[in-house]
Amino acid sequence: MKKLQTSQKSQKSHIRNPFVYRGLRAICDVVTFVTTLKNEIMNIQQIKERYTCLDYLGKPAKKVAHGYLYHAPWREDKHPSLSVTPDGRGWHDLATGAKGSVIDLVMMHLNTRDFRRVIEELEKVRPDSFSFPQSNTSDGEKEKGLEYTRFEMVPLQSRGLYAYLYKRGINIEIAKQFLQEARYSYKQPDDETYIYTLAYQNDKGGVEMRNSIKKHSKAPKWITTHLDQENAPVVVFEGFMDMLSFATLCGGVKHNYIVLNSIVNKEAALEVLKTLQNQVYLCLDNDEGGETTTRWLLDALPSATDIRKRFAPAKDVNDYLCMNRQG
């Protein structure tokens, strides 16, 4: 009995010994570190297997022999210089030489080394949520071959979307008057994973969607009219970002607006314009499509005024805003 008590006292004294305690604590810390490291390595491998750069970036600017070309989302990139391999597992920034996996891509885009942030960002994207269309589509057209399994509209609230608007120079309070937030998925509703985009609804219930990665739409495609400013002129734009940029430059909503959402909707816009007595200003893009559509509208509505030169040499009003804003 005395031996047993002595043995117990001996064990307690070892545990109370600070050197022994610290040694045991150090061993536990090492085991925890190794376990965490192994789990992170497993997570990295799982992320690389589950997601590709194509999932994250969406529709490419161009398909080429060695894969796909994108506009680098972390800088102004008028000529696509971000190359992605055919299988989407790797990328190469042709301008800087940077390259890596989908994880490196997200870290570069978010300007972070926080792996948890990368996971949170990628969880918004479902694998295989993008399929390349068989024919070319212009920006803003609905991606072909995809069906929404979930789609909802909520008030604009995502920090990422606020950051995107800020980057494009848009006044947030003005944006809230016209935009909502779309959350959607192309996959089966077996989790709560959504893609988040700005959502701009047209007069027939279709939705124009845009975030820092891509822009597309939910049918039907149609114009959007904002004609509640009594006796104010009407300004016509190709896209909603230009409308928001114009309102930002004006210091608020001081005009009526018609947004084509695509130049193919010019006939629909003309039908509305013919019913109005207001002065009409045409503020389409400074490119071939904008030139052709502007001339077509001026032929049909000679009283309208083309104001695109005010924003030249910028391609559109948003480019002009970004080029000229302070800071």
How many domains, as an integer? 3
The CATH architecture of the largest domain is 3-Layer(aba) Sandwich
Order of helices and strands: HHHEEEEEHHEHHEEEEEEHEHEHEH
Strand order of the largest sheet: 1-2-3-4-5
In the CATH scheme, the class of the largest domain would be: Alpha Beta
SSE blueprint and pairings:
Layout lengths: L1 H15 L1 H33 L2 H5 L4 E3 L2 E4 L11 E3 L6 E3 L5 E2 L1 H9 L4 H8 L27 E5 L4 H9 L4 H7 L1 E6 L9 E7 L5 E4 L4 E4 L5 E3 L7 E4 L2 H11 L5 E4 L6 H8 L6 E3 L5 H13 L4 E2 L10 H8 L3
Parallel strand pairs: 12-13, 12-14, 14-15
Antiparallel strand pairs: 1-2, 2-3, 3-4, 4-5, 6-7, 7-8, 8-9, 9-10, 11-13
Walk me through this protein's architecture:
With 327 residues, this protein is an alpha+beta fold. The protein has three domains: 2-50; 53-122, Zinc finger, CHC2-typedomain (DNA Primase, Chain A), CATH 3.90.580; 150-324, Dna Topoisomerase Vi A Subunit, Chain: A, domain 2, CATH 3.40.1360. Helix content is 39%, strand content 17%. The protein contains eleven helices and 15 strands. The protein has helices spanning 2-16, 18-50, 53-57, 102-110, 115-122, 159-167, 172-178, 240-250, 266-273, 288-300, 317-324; strands at residues 62-64, 67-70, 82-84, 91-93, 99-100, 150-154, 180-185, 195-201, 207-210, 215-218, 224-226, 234-237, 256-259, 280-282, 305-306. Strands 1-2-3-4-5 form a five-stranded antiparallel beta sheet. A five-stranded antiparallel beta sheet has the order 6-7-8-9-10, with no helix packed on it. Strands 11-13-12-14-15 form a five-stranded mixed beta sheet. The longest helix is centred in the first third of the chain and has 33 residues, at 18-50. The relative contact order is 0.08.
